[in-house]
Amino acid sequence: MTLFFNAFHAPIGAHASFTLGCRGRKGGLGLEMGGPAQENVYIGLESADGTAFEALPFFEPGGFMSSRYDHSAESQKPARAGLQEFAAESISRRFAAGTDCWQAGDLTCTLFSHGQAAPCPETAPIEQQKQVYCPAVTAELTIDNRQGQRTRRAFIGYTAGNSMDSMHLMEQLPAPYCGIAKGNSTAMVTHAAGAIATQGFCPEDILTEDIPANHHFGLGDTGLLIFEAPAREQCTFQVAICFYRGGIVTSGEATSYWYTRFFESLEQVGVYTLDAFADNKKAALETDERFEASHLNDHQRFQLAHAIRSYYGSTQLLDWDGKAFWVVNEGEYRMMNTFDLTVDQLFFEMKQNPWTVRNELDMFVNRYSYTDTVHFPGEDNEHAGGISFTHDMGRCNHISRPRYSTYELFNLSGCFSHMTHEQLVNWVLCASVYVKQTQDQEWLQANLPVCAKCMSSMLNRDHPDPDQRNGVMSLDSSRTMSGSEITTYDSLDQSLGQSRNNVYMAVKCWASYVAMAELFQENQRSEESQTCLQQAQRAASTISSHLDQDGFIPAILGEDCNAKIIPAIEGLVFPAVLGQREALAEDGPYGNLIKALKTHLTSILKPGICLFPDNGWKLSSSADNSWLSKIYLCQYVARQILGIRTPQTGELADQAHRRWLLKEENLFFAWSDQMVSGVARGSKYYPRGVTSILWLDETS
Description:
Elements: E1 16-19, E2 28-31, E3 41-46, E4 53-55, H1 73-76, E5 83-85, E6 91-95, E7 99-104, E8 107-112, H2 126-133, E9 136-145, E10 152-159, E11 167-169, E12 178-182, E13 186-190, E14 196-200, H3 203-207, E15 222-229, E16 233-243, E17 256-257, H4 266-275, H5 277-290, H6 298-313, E18 315-320, E19 323-328, H7 339-352, H8 355-366, E20 369-375, E21 383-389, E22 394-395, E23 398-399, H9 420-438, H10 441-462, E24 476-477, H11 494-497, H12 503-522, H13 526-545, H14 573-577, H15 581-584, H16 591-604, E25 625-627, H17 628-641, H18 651-661, E26 674-676, E27 679-682
Parallel strand pairs: 4-5
Antiparallel strand pairs: 1-2, 3-4, 3-10, 6-7, 7-8, 8-9, 9-16, 10-15, 11-12, 12-13, 13-16, 14-15, 17-18, 18-19, 20-21, 20-24, 22-23, 25-26, 26-27
């Protein structure tokens, strides 16, 4: 499998990434982007004989900027020979969650991205916040010139792209720091002895320039940091790769980056990062160790590391009127805190920084909840509905108006319709897991009334007549008008796209009732607890009753859709992380449901139904659009909860899914989610793959 795939190298909460790995001009320093910056990146070393410079293959030659100013033949000739790629066979890469190490010839470049827990802004010491939220990552260049007979130059830099800002040298840095920057937004800084910052039209011009004063050439869009490695020595140079955006950064509501409380400029970020280099390196190495569990196979470790990096590159920690606002952007789409991603990223955030879950839940209640009515499809009727929550909180740094998302439209039945019921159960499940795992009783007591409203809303969406309820969603929100609600699987067909009577949604409803029953019981609200237990039993009976003689549960219960879907089992994850073992036991109170879902998965996880020919998982038998984040989650459910441990649920599938990510068509956008027959067609540059964190909890 190829070494040359893009990966995020991202600080926490800065919505920034030094993306690198694809051949050509396909990486760079991106700030608030839905894809790689597409800048030339230069990381290289002078050859031993001094006749050429070799660089890792992250650039494209050509585009002589001087021709914009001087149209003579001389100015349009090809750049001087001297910069070439390292031979492909000489390049190796060691990729993990916190470190990404490239080696070619006598050059080693290691990039460090620390995946520490994000400290709670309300309680964490200022110095800890400053260290973790500093908007920078680090690089270490090691030059092995022990066999060399002459001093050799090494370099790292980039050509500014996709920007109105100019490349420039950072004149305000104190000695011995020096740096190159694009405007006030991105930079590379070092404090290595003897290093120089340079600027020119192209690397060849800079590296062959003999007059030091010309290193300040302001028209050049390329900046390099140049180091010297003496003969017969091995040298290591440290570099800070920095990002910064000051002032108000959002519309709709005015917020700024939390890190601007600690840093006033790129220069301050660069100096601080280099001074804390040892701590950052240590944190990155600890990140490697934390996520390299011995029971994972190499394919799992790769996908987990890749996904964690993508998640952090999508995060923003904003200051909203003096209070922290945690945002996870939706990859290429850049929607803010998409709730159906929040519920899947829940497992990662609860391990790393549970306060972010509380922060997201509070924002959904306080600004992005609404009350609707509901109706049966195809009828002129209206019934009481209740509370629910929006799909998202905004897009591309625009915070949307209260009670409305940027995504959801009225009077639709497909993509862009409302996800009212799904977001309702998502709040219930996220809140239940947060309380169970943190024992935050103060938050729970403040939000028990919200839980009660959620229960009433779910009941009303089942059936207005209590005697006719079956535990499953049967009514659509009035916000859909003559349309119907959809699920997070918005781009799939009816088998997963329709919310009403969907078995995927039905099992999540069951899990929500099971969760609320325990929550209410533990807080002396026995009547509500009994209601939830009754609904959970109804849901379990309804779902299991649809298991047919061939061992399948249809995707849509009681309607004309007999597609088979893997996510029927997805909702089982919640009782597992809530510690509700009895609810998952085959001889427990919901044993009929557990056995039916186990039979269902065993029956469909076969070639031609829900397995692609390469052993990759096909979420729906009637669609080729399969989402890796959901596959990861369902693999955990299959193996850990249902006890189905086969090559098809394990290594064969893992190998296929890794191969998907490393297909030529998919390399550019790093970790991507929606794969149509193994090719990324949507949800690219995406954070949701951290569902793979569940694998760490598996036992053999």
